[in-house]
């Protein structure tokens, strides 16, 4: 196996335009374009996505994680950050952080007419879960690391 190079052009990576969310949530985030940067660089403890969020779409459902810190850095365009404190506009060069275990739901919404691009960075904790204060949705990781979404009472979608 050849060694991992320490640099790359994100445009050379395949874009992922899928979501593990069940409906009715999936259509709130798609279409979007995510390019996973961590794996091709050999990073195993942090995950990094370069995400393009289309006009009118949400980055995710408003949520907070139990064991993963999250960091967002806006590269281009404009998004609105929604948290328990309200709304805040984020433009290029602005960032936001969400500590693990802090029950302050957050997500981004693109209200503009153009796509917005941002970096999503988080630690990869194998036992992470997330809560969704506005939706009947719960998240946890399967033993293989794949996401499992259920209703808050644990029933399947």
- Helix percent reads under 10%
CATH superfamily: Jelly Rolls
How large, in whole angstroms, is the Cα Rg?
Answer: 16 Å
Highest CATH level, the class: Mainly Beta
- Let me know the average pLDDT: 95
- How many separate structural domains? 1
List the strand order in the largest sheet: 1-2-9-4-7
Q: Measure the end-to-end span.
A: 40 Å
- Give me the strand/helix succession: HEEEEEEEEEEEE
Give the strand content. Answer: 35-45%
What is the name of the CATH architecture?
Sandwich
Q: Structural class, from helix and strand content? A: mainly beta
Q: State the major sheet.
A: 5 strands, antiparallel
Number of helices: 1
Q: Residue ranges: pLDDT <50 for 5 or more in a row?
A: none
């Amino acid at each position: 196996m050849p060694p991992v190079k320490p640099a790359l052009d994100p445009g050379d990576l395949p874009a992922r335009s899928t979501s593990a969310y069940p409906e009715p949530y999936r259509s709130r985030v798609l279409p979007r374009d995510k390019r996973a940067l961590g794996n091709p660089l050999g990073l195993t403890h942090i995950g990094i996505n370069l995400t393009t969020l289309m006009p009118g779409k949400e980055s995710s459902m408003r949520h907070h994680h139990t064991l993963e810190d999250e960091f967002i850095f806006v590269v281009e365009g404009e998004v609105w950050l929604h948290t328990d404190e309200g709304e805040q506009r984020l433009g290029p060069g602005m960032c936001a952080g969400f500590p693990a275990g802090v029950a302050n739901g957050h997500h981004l919404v693109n209200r503009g007419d153009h796509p917005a691009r941002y970096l999503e960075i988080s630690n990869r904790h194998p036992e992470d879960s997330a809560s969704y204060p506005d939706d009947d949705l719960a998240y946890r990781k399967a033993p293989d690391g794949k996401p499992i979404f259920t209703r808050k009472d644990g029933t399947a979608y």
